Amino acid sequence: MKYIIGIGGMTNGGKTTLTNKLVNAFPGCCVVHQDDFFKPQDQIPVGEDGFKQWDVMTSLDMEAMVNTVKAWLENPVKFARSHGIQVSPELEEPDSEEQTHILIVEGFLLYNYRPLIELFSHCYYIVVPYEECKRRRSTRKYTVPDPPGLFDGHVWPMYLKYRREMESSPVEVEYLDGLKTREQLFNQVYEAIRNMLNS
Ligand SMILES: Nc1ncnc2c1ncn2[C@@H]1O[C@H](COP(=O)(O)OP(=O)(O)O)[C@@H](O)[C@H]1O
Ligand SMILES: NC(=O)c1ccc[n+]([C@@H]2O[C@H](COP(=O)(O)O)[C@@H](O)[C@H]2O)c1
Ligand SMILES: [Mg+2]
């Protein structure tokens, strides 16, 4: 069986931190980070809000991201090997259709792009309150630093827009409280995935 777990949610909710812990906990587990699919800076236009539009769907090459997920689905062992992930001998068996393979897909805009949504076995969505999100974001160092006012002028309004859109769509997400400790979040999701694999 192949399982694709989405770790979505707002910026600075703790997605990448949780994902890294999960990837380490499941041997052979593969990962796709949405951040790796941002278009180059010169292709990101400035919007009516006066900011470069990083937090909209069109800033990402979603077609390439979906193709990457489909490449994993096609051949998880080949995908793992080509990404330097150690594959245990039993996962390499020719009858690996009967083996369990896990892919974690992580990012801030996972559930607003139909061709990706339909690939998920389970969708998580991490949230933290506005103040905490803004506080964490203020200490982050992105490859392109946030200009002054970006959070309130662009990041937060786009988060609200896409969350509303997601909530009025058929996608079913399980919310995670990003105020829990890193360990609590990990234990909760690790146990849930273990149960999913055993059911
Ligand atoms: N459960 C948590 N509690 C407190 N701080 C956290 C937690 N998880 C992550 N962080 C911190 O919050 C910031 C954003 O975490 P990160 O995992 O990069 O979030 P995201 O990928 O959702 O933007 C980092 O400074 C990280 O150390
Ligand atoms: N990785 C990049 O090239 C890049 C550039 C500019 C902004 N960002 C920011 O990354 C955020 C998404 O990543 P996180 O969910 O990890 O915060 C977006 O809110 C976006 O503003 C990323
Ligand atoms: Mg991240």
Automatic annotation (TrEMBL):
UniProt KW keywords: ATP-binding, Kinase, Magnesium, Metal-binding, Nucleotide-binding, Pyridine nucleotide biosynthesis, Transferase
CDD domains named among the record's database cross-references: NRK1
One Pfam family matching this protein: AAA_18
GO biological process: one example: pyridine nucleotide biosynthetic process
InterPro entries tied to this protein: P-loop_NTPase
Catalytic activity: beta-D-ribosylnicotinate + ATP = nicotinate beta-D-ribonucleotide + ADP + H(+); beta-nicotinamide D-riboside + ATP = beta-nicotinamide D-ribonucleotide + ADP + H(+)
Highest taxon of source: Eukaryota
Protein name as catalogued: Nicotinamide riboside kinase 2
Organism for this UniProt entry: Erpetoichthys calabaricus
High-level lineage: Eukaryota, Metazoa, Chordata, Craniata, Vertebrata
Name of the gene this protein is made from: NMRK2
